[in-house]
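Kindly inspect the following:
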Amino acid sequence: MLLVERRGAVLHVTINRPEKRNALALAALDALGAAFTENAGDETIACALLTGAGDRSFAAGGDLRELDALRTADEARAMSARGRLALAAVRAFPAPVVAALNGHALGGGAELAMACDLRIAAPHAELGFLQAELNVTSAWGGGIDLLAAVGPARALELLAGARRLPARAALELGLLQRVAAPNEDFAAFVTDYVAALTRRPARVLRAQKALTGAFRQRLHAELAAVEESGFVPAWVHADHWDVAAAALAKPARRS
């Protein structure tokens, strides 16, 4: 479900559910949070790299079949808190975290990508806050990260529009830092990007992350309750269950 490996000064974390488009089951979220929490005290780590297995999906979002069983406000609130805790561990990691989007980052997967400090992508990757397609809102802090990245007007447009942004469009909006060239070997592209970043000593990168991380933590402290207060009633509303049932009845889309 999750592969964690140390290579030199870089912590590699890979979501390993390619047959499920790396959907974020609750157990996968728990494992993800634990991986970053357990390695946070290692001061020799200069950078963490988060990616997904395969070339279709970075993370396709929450596991809809698992989440369909969560019907009450208390269950929705607990699920939101569980995912928020996992992504908070990514945001709070003392070294920069790079998301390498090997494929699509959609819904909760987009929230996970935005929880990272930097994002790079394969040219075929897409980034999309698709929650509104299910008549819900962001649940794990992703809306706050989006707001910080592009400002309130653009964030609102992206959240309400639920558009799948091609990598180049996401780059132009500042949601990605780099996109590999067509036909460029993605593994080599990622290696080169991380190598350039880690030319700096770990203590320097970690000091820089401390500053940018403090800014993000302050924003989340101010807005997390607002995001959750919008998510819970949307989740338990009949409008959500109607479209969720229709989505579950469809054949799985190839992403």
Q: What stands out?
A: Residues 76 and 232 are 6 Å apart (CA to CA). The chain has a mean pLDDT of 93. The chain has ten helices and ten strands.
